[in-house]
Amino acid sequence: MERYVWLLKNTPLSASDSIRIREGEVARFIMINRTMMHHPMHLHGHFFRVVNGQGDYAPLKHTVDVAPMSTTVIEFDANEVGDWFFHCHLLYHMKSGKARMVHYENFDPGPAVTAVRPNLYKDPWYFWGQADILSNMTEGYLTTSNTLNILTAEWEVGWQNVDETELEGIFTYSRYFNRFESVFIGANSMGEKDSLDKTRGILGIHYLLPLNFESRAWIDTDSGARFFLDKEFELTPRIMLFGEVEYDTHDLWEGAAGLEYMVTKSISLVARWHSEFQWGGGLQVRF
Known about the structure:
By secondary structure, the protein is mainly beta. It has helices spanning 91-95, 111-116, and strands at 19-21, 26-33, 39-43, 48-50, 60-61, 63-66, 70-77, 83-88, 99-104, 126-134, 137-145, 149-158, 166-176, 181-192, 195-209, 213-220, 225-234, 239-248, 252-262, 267-274, 278-286. The chain has a twelve-stranded antiparallel barrel with strand order 10-11-12-13-14-15-16-17-18-19-20-21. A hairpin with a 4-residue loop joins strand 17 (225-234) and strand 18.
């Protein structure tokens, strides 16, 4: 959910085939929602019956909410020959993949529609980032991504409580498999002052653990490894407590913790303790 990538049958619209049905039959869709968000699913061109145990009193609808951790079954008469869009009515879910084309077998949409139909299956790239600008350090990331492919550049620069300013950059390509797992390959560069003079290749996995603990582990080309774990606790809608711990076979332990207050959707005030750079405060900017 954090990436707002939404799939039907583990496939985004951009990579999907149509849902094929036959005229004159009764079509049944079984929708199993194993996310923590609601999905109001809307079928164009038809009214459907919600199979909810009420027999003849089952509601007739064109949109039904599939609640978190629930299963909803619908069925309808396949009597409106054509191509019909079936999608989540939260439009940012639809745009990021939670949609399908319901296609009647032997239906020909005609040359004009066929010519523009590939536009429906485009998979656009998006860009976003975050930067923490603190009194003791700065860190953040820049990301560009489509549904399954993610390019990320991360940085950490610290100057307080150390002899020389310490720099680290992580550059990765990740392949998204599901809401729990992605694998990545890239490079980890480190240095001091204004030079990243040590670079290692890395290969790893990102995995979402129970209770929404984020984990990341990699091996590198210097026969080393790193494991990273972090967790955010939303105390109120605007106040968040966060903590992270990292073990690297080259540099051993590193950790951080702090408190964030959201001022606007793009800016937060941050107080942060880091095991190397100690206490600092400043702003977090999201874009």
